What we know:
This protein is mainly α. The protein has a domain at 25-148: Winged helix-like DNA-binding domain superfamily/Winged helix DNA-binding domain (Arc Repressor Mutant, subunit A). It contains seven helices and three strands, in the order αααβααββαα. The protein has a three-stranded antiparallel β-sheet with strand order 1-3-2. A hairpin with a 7-residue loop joins strand 2 (106-110) and strand 3. The longest helix is centred in the first third of the chain and has 32 residues, at 27-58.
Amino acid sequence: MSQDAGADPGDRAWNLPWAEPFGTGEPERAELATAFGAAIRKTSSLMQLMSQAAADRIGINATDLNCLNILSFSGQMTAGELARATGLTTASITGVVDRLEQAGYVRRERDPRDRRRVVIRLVLETALRDVAAVFLPMMRDWQQMAARYSDDELRLIVDFYDRMEQVLRGHLTRLREAAQDPGGGPPA
């Protein structure tokens, strides 16, 4: 008798990488689709755990580290831009920036083109010393891993991550809009 026999169908679905069956047709395709879903879920969980462990090592919280990472792509943003990029309220961003500024990772500066605007600027030296050093061993491992792939294979992987980013951005927007809808709630 299967260990799933008599179990709640919802319990069995939790053991699958997808909420609904994925990959109909050929059995090999269904197995690949299942492995794909499991890999995404595992990688997502490990990235979150890695982020928390890195934040603990650096001495900041995971939200502040995530904001610092987003800021590192451009080197500077306004508080409003950072709030939109993260989905945090401007009040929450003010707290994040206060903590990051106190830790020496960012500084607030007046925008030279519009003195009314305040720009949050990454303090590169401090970020490189404290934050990049924590991630450097992993980055080196990723570089070694990438070296095993051909240029065409890397293009495919980069394309996959670009598409994954778009999917995630779409669902972040969907979740944020649902949270703002007073009649909205979790789906039934």
